[in-house]
């Protein structure tokens, strides 16, 4: 009888403490809640402005098309390319000062952009906005990843659930921001920029008030040489390459997909609906899918499954192109691509971010988090140039899509073993 009672109590304890049934948000620390709300509000402020920048530059300021593209490219470069710098600064000076600096620069950048009318002033404003993100984002992402690992080690469920919340918060911001921006644009672009700046003023004030001066367990790294060690970390570089192929595939929403929608319908009006479909899928399905994947797949298999789903999305369009469907039927393959790409994204992004702390050198999570974006951004820069050339060549329409399908499928094969972790002179961690 005592054994029966003991086993019953054990089963009851397991049921009541089982991580997979835990409501993640309810059990988050105040710091994690602050960082996730920061991701949401920063997305709202950013996407209230940036989707309307190209139209403002070309129509209101009369810039040539090549100059508009150059300005937008500079913004991307100043952001993605400098993530690794921002990550290194986070490791050296801590999360709080870097987040505060990034918020202050964002406020200045958006306010400047609202009043910029000359080419050089516009360039200065967008560089400032991009560099602000290069400080702000690695600080938030690396600390969320570190806190997620701590929660996992304490038995509060898979780290990917917290990182899924981070992705969902970012996508919710990307969905709400343009709606806010469209309303404000009825006044003028300057008002939209000032509203974006106001959002970051609120974020800045919240972090001044709520962000602790020192986060327990966060060690500041003063030693140099971290970049050299990173470049010799083959497992991490393999992860960057695989993640870069996902970003390259995602970039086709802006490169290959518009061509396909134009072919199918004769205009690009349906693009906004497809983008909305992608954002809504992430907001609605990210957490359930991540919970399911965390219980059944783990990090490596989640990334493999995600990359194969992305490959399948390209293959769907390639298979349908020879049929030559147009109109609403012609949009079905494009919608299938968007759905499969988004499902793949929901598996790949939390898993990749969750994997970084395992592969990073002690005390350099910020550097590695930033490097994941910077190295992947370089892959996208090179890969997009190649993709653009493929689309311009006189090839059968399905060929570029088949090549794009092969890239993530091959990337799944180069992922490191889940057991491979960073090892220094003192051993693995």
UniProtKB/TrEMBL annotation:
<feature type="transmembrane region" description="Helical">
    <location>
        <begin position="98"/>
        <end position="116"/>
    </location>
</feature>
<feature type="transmembrane region" description="Helical">
    <location>
        <begin position="270"/>
        <end position="290"/>
    </location>
</feature>
<feature type="transmembrane region" description="Helical">
    <location>
        <begin position="367"/>
        <end position="386"/>
    </location>
</feature>
<dbReference type="InterPro" id="IPR020846">
    <property type="entry name" value="MFS_dom"/>
</dbReference>
<feature type="transmembrane region" description="Helical">
    <location>
        <begin position="398"/>
        <end position="415"/>
    </location>
</feature>
<keyword id="KW-0472">Membrane</keyword>
<feature type="transmembrane region" description="Helical">
    <location>
        <begin position="331"/>
        <end position="355"/>
    </location>
</feature>
<dbReference type="InterPro" id="IPR011701">
    <property type="entry name" value="MFS"/>
</dbReference>
<feature type="transmembrane region" description="Helical">
    <location>
        <begin position="162"/>
        <end position="183"/>
    </location>
</feature>
<feature type="transmembrane region" description="Helical">
    <location>
        <begin position="189"/>
        <end position="210"/>
    </location>
</feature>
<keyword id="KW-0813">Transport</keyword>
<feature type="transmembrane region" description="Helical">
    <location>
        <begin position="302"/>
        <end position="325"/>
    </location>
</feature>
<dbReference type="GO" id="GO:0022857">
    <property type="term" value="F:transmembrane transporter activity"/>
</dbReference>
<protein>
    <submittedName>
        <fullName>Multidrug resistance protein MdtH</fullName>
    </submittedName>
</protein>
<dbReference type="GO" id="GO:0005886">
    <property type="term" value="C:plasma membrane"/>
</dbReference>
<dbReference type="InterPro" id="IPR036259">
    <property type="entry name" value="MFS_trans_sf"/>
</dbReference>
<keyword id="KW-1133">Transmembrane helix</keyword>
<keyword id="KW-0812">Transmembrane</keyword>
<feature type="transmembrane region" description="Helical">
    <location>
        <begin position="122"/>
        <end position="141"/>
    </location>
</feature>
<feature type="transmembrane region" description="Helical">
    <location>
        <begin position="231"/>
        <end position="250"/>
    </location>
</feature>
<dbReference type="Pfam" id="PF07690">
    <property type="entry name" value="MFS_1"/>
</dbReference>
<feature type="domain" description="Major facilitator superfamily (MFS) profile">
    <location>
        <begin position="31"/>
        <end position="423"/>
    </location>
</feature>
<feature type="transmembrane region" description="Helical">
    <location>
        <begin position="31"/>
        <end position="54"/>
    </location>
</feature>
<keyword id="KW-1003">Cell membrane</keyword>
<dbReference type="InterPro" id="IPR050171">
    <property type="entry name" value="MFS_Transporters"/>
</dbReference>
């Amino acid at each position: 009888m005592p054994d029966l009672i003991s086993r019953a109590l054990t089963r009851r304890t397991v049921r009541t403490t089982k991580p997979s049934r835990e409501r993640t948000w309810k059990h988050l620390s105040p710091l994690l809640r602050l960082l996730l709300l920061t991701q949401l509000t920063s997305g709202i402020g950013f996407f209230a402005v940036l989707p309307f920048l190209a139209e403002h530059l070309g129509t209101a300021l009369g810039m040539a098309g090549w100059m508009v593209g150059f300005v937008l490219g500079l913004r991307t470069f100043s952001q993605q390319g400098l993530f690794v710098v921002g990550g290194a600064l986070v490791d050296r000076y801590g999360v709080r000062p870097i987040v505060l600096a990034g918020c202050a620069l964002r406020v200045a950048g958006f306010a400047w952009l609202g009043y910029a009318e000359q080419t050089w002033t516009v360039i200065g404003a967008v560089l400032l906005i991009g560099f602000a993100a290069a400080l702000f984002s690695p600080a938030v992402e690396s600390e969320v990843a570190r806190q997620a690992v701590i929660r996992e080690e304490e038995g509060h469920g898979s780290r990917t659930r917290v990182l899924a919340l981070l992705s969902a918060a970012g996508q919710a911001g990307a969905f709400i921001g343009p709606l806010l921006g469209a309303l404000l644009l009825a006044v003028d672009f300057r008002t939209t920029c000032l509203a974006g700046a106001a959002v970051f003023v609120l974020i800045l004030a919240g972090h001044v008030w709520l962000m602790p001066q020192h986060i327990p367990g966060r060690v500041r790294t003063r030693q140099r040489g971290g970049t050299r060690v990173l470049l010799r970390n083959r497992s991490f570089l393999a992860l960057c390459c695989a993640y870069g192929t996902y970003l390259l595939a995602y970039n086709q929403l802006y490169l290959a997909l518009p061509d396909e929608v134009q072919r199918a319908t004769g205009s690009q009006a349906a693009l906004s609906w497809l983008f909305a479909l992608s954002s809504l899928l992430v907001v609605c399905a990210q957490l359930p899918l991540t919970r399911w994947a965390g219980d059944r797949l783990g990090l490596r298999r989640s990334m493999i499954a995600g990359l194969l789903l992305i490959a399948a999305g390209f293959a769907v369009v390639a298979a349908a192109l020879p049929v030559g469907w147009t109109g609403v039927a012609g949009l079905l393959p494009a919608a299938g691509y968007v759905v499969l790409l988004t499902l793949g994204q929901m598996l790949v992004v939390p898993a990749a971010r969750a994997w970084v702390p395992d592969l990073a050198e002690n005390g350099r999570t910020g550097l590695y988090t930033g490097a994941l974006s910077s190295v992947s951004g370089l892959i996208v820069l090179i890969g997009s140039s190649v993709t653009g050339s493929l689309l311009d060549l006189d090839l059968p329409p399905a060929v570029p899509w088949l090549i794009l399908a092969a890239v993530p499928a091959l990337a799944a094969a180069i992922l490191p073993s889940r057991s491979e972790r960073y090892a220094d002179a003192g051993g693995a961690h």
